[in-house]
């Protein structure tokens, strides 16, 4: 058993966390990860209203009695959702673990702390991790440049970012971006992390609530099949390479502004990809780790083999150093 500061702090068996993913982090996936011994996450803003979020939390509880959390990502938006209402719904539903991402968690910490909620803050740099530690989070999820979604603007990959974080952070932290097998988990632990966070790998499982065509595309794709969009806008996002993201890259490279691509990157179009399997309906997020994904297992099978492989790798490392 790979016991770490993170597993002890959050009461889970394995140091593996399912990242909060828009349109993907639903009850069935979160519960499956928790049942397998990891930490599943429901994505709050996937639910159209705070009341719907409460129902989704209850649905997860009907599927597992093990710990799971809720992701609350706070990003700049033309029409921002009612974040305070979602936060209140999380508290009122009795959730005990929250993953925050995007903006600083500081405005939310008092309420979460007052209700005994442990916070994991996802960030992309050591400086942001240290700030999260100062405002009182229980743990940090440090996100390397390999990740899906928003990798920040520093472009620091995990091989450097993880040990750099370990050198300066006192609280437990997990590594995000590029993880999909036991070798990655073993590497993260050796580099100083207390576990790993996986998004794309869990998206490509039987229990993942996305269209089969999306999962099959991830299996077919390589580490070369992503695009970085919004680079010129200083809001970089890593997404799947398709006709839409190619067009967005071209428009912005030729001097376009956000207004010129707004309709192309609309969230509703990305949701269509996941729900209907039309891979060119919009942009959708996936990480470089898709180059290491070759099948669509159940969550339980995936977690079990990752842990077993990590234990084998770490045992070999130990024998080599004796």
UniProtKB/TrEMBL annotation:
UniProt KW DNA-binding keyword: no
Entry-linked InterPro entries: Aldolase_TIM (IPR013785), NMO (IPR004136)
Listed GO MF terms: monooxygenase activity
Domain of life from the UniProt record: Bacteria
Coiled-coil region: none
Keywords, comma-separated and alphabetical: Flavoprotein, FMN, Monooxygenase, Oxidoreductase
CDD domains found in the cross-reference section: NPD_like (cd04730)
Protein name according to UniProt: Nitronate monooxygenase family protein
């Amino acid at each position: 058993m790979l016991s770490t500061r993170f597993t002890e702090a959050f009461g889970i068996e394995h140091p593996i966390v399912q990242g909060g993913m828009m349109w993907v982090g639903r009850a069935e996936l979160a519960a499956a990860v928790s049942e397998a011994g990891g930490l599943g996450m429901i994505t709050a803003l996937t639910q159209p209203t705070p009341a719907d979020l409460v129902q989704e939390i209850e649905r997860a509880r009907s599927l597992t009695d093990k710990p799971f959390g809720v992701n609350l990502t706070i990003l700049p938006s033309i029409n921002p959702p009612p974040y305070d209402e979602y936060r209140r719904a999380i508290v009122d539903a009795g959730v005990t673990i929250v993953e925050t991402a995007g903006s600083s968690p500081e405005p939310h910490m008092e309420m979460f702390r007052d209700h005994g909620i442990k916070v994991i803050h996802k960030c992309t740099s050591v400086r942001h991790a240290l700030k999260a530690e100062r405002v009182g989070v229980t743990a940090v999820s440090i996100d390397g440049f390999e990740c899906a979604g928003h990798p920040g603007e520093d472009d620091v990959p995990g091989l450097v970012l993880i040990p750099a974080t370990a050198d300066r952070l006192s609280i437990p932290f997990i590594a995000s971006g590029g993880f999909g097998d036991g070798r990655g988990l073993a590497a993260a632990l050796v580099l100083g992390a207390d576990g790993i966070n996986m998004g794309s790998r869990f998206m490509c499982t039987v229990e993942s609530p996305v269209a089969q065509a999306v999962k099959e595309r991830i299996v077919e794709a390589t580490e070369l099949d992503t695009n970085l969009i919004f680079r010129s806008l200083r809001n970089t996002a890593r997404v799947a390479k398709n006709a839409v993201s190619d067009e967005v890259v071209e428009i912005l490279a030729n001097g376009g502004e956000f207004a010129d691509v707004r309709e192309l990157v609309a969230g509703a179009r990305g949701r269509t990809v996941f729900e209907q399997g039309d891979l060119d309906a919009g942009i959708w997020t996936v990480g470089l780790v898709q180059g290491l994904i070759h099948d669509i297992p159940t969550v339980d099978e995936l977690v079990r083999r990752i842990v077993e492989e990590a234990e084998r790798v770490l045992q070999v490392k130990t024998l080599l150093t004796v």
